[in-house]
Amino acid sequence: MMLDEARNRMLMEVGPKKPMGKLLRRYWMPISAVSEFDKKATKPIRLLGEDLVLYKDLSGTFGLIDRNCQHRRADLSYGFVEKCGLRCNYHGWLYDKDGSCIAQPYEDTVSTKSDKKNLVTIKAYPVETKAGLLWAYLGPDPAPLVPTWEPFTFNNGFVQIVFSVVPCNWFQCQENSLDPVHFEWMHANWTMRLKGIEGPYSPAHLKVDFQEFDYGFRYLRLREDTDENNPLWTIGRCCLWPNCLFTGDHFEWRVPIDDENTLSVGWFFNRVPQGREPYIQDSIPSWTSPLTDPETGRWIDTHVMNQDFIAWVGQGTFADRTKETLGKSDKGIAMLRKQFFDDMELIDNNKTDPKGVVRDPDINECIQLPIMNRKRFLEGLTPEEMADPNDIHGRSTKRFVFLAGQPQEVWETYCEAMRFEK
Fold it and tell me: Is residue 249 exposed (0-12), middle (13-18) or buried (19+ Cβ within 10 Å)?
C-alpha cells in the first residue's frame, strides 16, 4: 500500500483531534505497573500527547487527572495524596479521581457558603488494574472492557513488566508486529554475527501468510527447517489490535506518548517447572530497560527487543512511507494499514466499535489467543527439560534474551522461581 504524505501523517498523529488519536482513544492503554506505586504515590504521565498525573490515594484508589492544577497551574505530580484524591502542594486544592475539586482550603474558610469549588473540574480519565498493569481510557463513554487475554489467567508463573521509552513514532513500532521475515535477519542472523559467527545463517523463510481474526491478525511462517505441520505455520503469532504484539509468552504494547515518542510495555510470563507448584507471585516486579551503552552511547544490540528498537528508531522519528519499496513479504503491513484506515473512517461516521473492542463480560472472562505449545504454559516443563540445552523452551526461559538491564533483585527472584542457579 503506497502512501502519500497526508495519509502517512494520518497513521502517525495521535492528538485528540486527529483521526488516529480519536481511534486509539477507543481502547484501554497500559501506562504503568501496580508495583511502581509500592514506593511512590504519584507519577507524571504523557499519553497520546496529553500531560497527566497518575496517583494512588491513601484509600488505595488510582486516579489519572490533568497534570496542572486549575487554580494557578502548579504541577500536580508534586502534590500529595489524601484519603480521597490528590492535593496540590501549592495552595492545597484537592481533586478526586473524577477531576472534581472537593476542597479549596482558604476559599472554604472565608466563604463557607460558597459553592465555587463545585464549579471547578479538571480533566480526568478512568483507570483500571489488570495483570499487574494500570490501564487508562481516554475515549468516549461508555468505556469498553479491559481485555482479559488468556495468559492473564495462567497460574504458576513468574511475571515481570518491562518499560522502555523509544524515541520514534508509535506506528513504525506496531508495523513490526506483522513483519515475520525480520526475525530471520534482525534477530537470528544479526545475533550470530554479533557473536563473531559468519555462518551458516538461520534457516531462510520459504513462505509467509497473514490471517485476520476478531482481535487482530496472525502471521504464519514456513522456514527451511519446518514443514506445514509446524506451529510456526499452523498457529503462528499475532498482532493484537490496535497496538500490541503477542508471541505466546509475552505481550509488547507500543503506547504512543506523543507523536515523537513511544512507551514500550512488555509483559512476560515464564511458567515455573513442574514440581514447583503451587507458585504464587505476591507482587509483579516492574523495571525500565536501558537502551544505550553509557560508555559508547551506541544502542544496546545484544537483546532481541533492543534490536527491534534500533530498527524502529533507524527509520527516523517519523517513517517516510512515501519513499518505501514494499515487497511480497509486506502483505501483512498493507493489511494492517488498510484496517487502520477502515477503522478511522468507521468511527468518523459513528457506525459501530472499531476492531478488537471488547464489551461482552462473558467473552471477557478469558479471551483465548493462538498460542504455540499451550501445554507448556499450562503444565510446565520438567526440571530435566528446563536444564536441557537442546530444548528450545527451557533454553529460552533460562536465557531470558528479550531485555537488557534486568535488576539484580528481579533476576534473583526469577532464578529462585525457576530453580536456576543465580
Answer: buried
Give the 3-state DSSP-derived string for the chain, with helices as H, strands as E and coil as C.
CCCCHHHHHHHHCCCCCCHHHHHHCCCCEEEEEHHHHHCCCEEEEEECCEEEEEEECCCCCEEEEECECCCCCCEHHHCEECCCCEECCCCCCEECCCCEEEECHHHHHHCCCCCHHHHCECCEECEEEECCEEEECCCCCCCCCCCCEHHHHCCCEEEEEEEEEECCCHHHHHHHHHCCCHHHHHHHHHHHHHCCCCCCCCCCEEEEEEEEECCEEEEEEEECCCCCCCHHHHCCEEEECCCEEECCCEEEEEEECCCCCEEEEEEEEEECCCCCCCCCCCCCCEEECCCECCCCCCECCCCHHHHHHHHHHHCCCCCCHHHCCCCHHHHHHHHHHHHHHHHHHHHHCCCCCCCCCCCCCCHHHCECCCCCCHHHHHHCCCHHHHHCCCCHHHHHHHHCCCCCCCCHHHHHHHHHHHCCCC
Query: What is the per-residue pLDDT for 296?
Result: 94
Q: Over the chain (422 residues), what is each successive 10-residue block's mean pLDDT?
A: 91 98 98 97 98 98 98 96 97 96 85 73 97 98 97 96 97 97 92 90 95 96 93 94 95 98 96 93 94 93 92 97 95 97 90 94 97 90 78 59 81 86 64
pLDDT of 395: 54
pLDDT score, position 58: 98
Q: How far is the C-alpha of 318 from the C-alpha of 256, rounded, in Å?
A: 13
pLDDT of res. 116: 73
| Domain spans, the chain | 35-130, 144-418
pLDDT at 313: 97
The partner residues of 81 in beta bridges, in order of sequence, read 86
Q: CATH topology for 35-130?
A: Rieske Iron-sulfur Protein (2.102.10)
pLDDT at 246: 97
Question: How do strand 29-33 and strand 216-223 relate by DSSP bridges?
Answer: unpaired
